[in-house]
Amino acid sequence: MTARTLVVLRHAKAANPSGLADRERPLSADGEHDARRVGEALAAQGLRPDLVLCSPSVRTRQTANLALPGADVLFEPAIYEAYPDELLTLIRRTDPRVRTLVLVGHNPGVHELVRQLTEDEDDGDAGFPPGAFAVIEVDGEWTELDVGRGIASWSPKKP
């Protein structure tokens, strides 16, 4: 079997300026800081993506750019407001040559996806705050992804 790694990342903390559509909301100053910390945490774990699938919203783009500078990023409109089954379908379409995939998206979809893939208990939104990510080891091909094995998680709220 071929081992693959899926990193599911919720965008970092967004600002909420008046008059902007939800898709146009940028990261807050804290969010920018946390996105950089995400990158440091991923690098410390030796996780360098072959591909990043990212929602096209401003805050997810900024999170990907700050956390994963220089990575190959594919902006996928379907990630915005996606349900877990829709996210899983996108992941299953990933090129088999990709060994480490990062998905940058939004709650509740990304949190629910992580819960389903790791068979984790529901702990509400608090369990996957902005800037949190989960690392899921996948045995086999992306097309076969069903239930993975969570090996690590990180949140900017942790010291």
Automatic annotation (TrEMBL):
Superkingdom in the source lineage: Bacteria
Family annotation (Gene3D superfamilies): Phosphoglycerate mutase-like (3.40.50.1240)
Alphabetized Pfam families for the sequence: His_Phos_1 (PF00300)
InterPro entries assigned: His_Pase_superF_clade-1, His_PPase_superfam
Protein name: SixA phosphatase family protein
